[in-house]
Amino acid sequence: DLPLLVRNPHAVRPWQHVLEPLAGYLMLAERLQRNDCAEAWNFGPGDTSTVTVAELLDKMSGLWSHDAKWSADAASHQHEAGQLKLDSSKARLQLGWKPRHDIDSALGLTVSWHKAWVRGEDMRQVSLGQIRDYMN
User: Fold this and answer.
1) 36 pLDDT exceeds 90?
2) What's the pTM value of the predicted model, to 2 decimals?
């Protein structure tokens, strides 16, 4: 199998599971019904989930299978920011929102979901199960 080619393995990105910002948006929607807080909001991961692309891929390949491989794409010369980060302090302070998953649990959920899809499981049920677990 060919390795996954990665443009910039040293780039630092804020990684999170999709349910994290969705929960924040739902909290914000509830709040918007009660008062005026129609402004910009960030719902990002905690600092420990801001890691390099290489760190993320190493963690994910360990969860997926130990033969999953990736490699830096030497042919890629696309310019991109070396570090991206979100400041979610406003959401934490004003809405009481905070991420529930660290990078490891978020990746565990993601890999679990994808493996279920590969096995041909009912993805509606898998997704609803993950949502129920997240809400509890």
Assistant:
1) no
2) 0.85
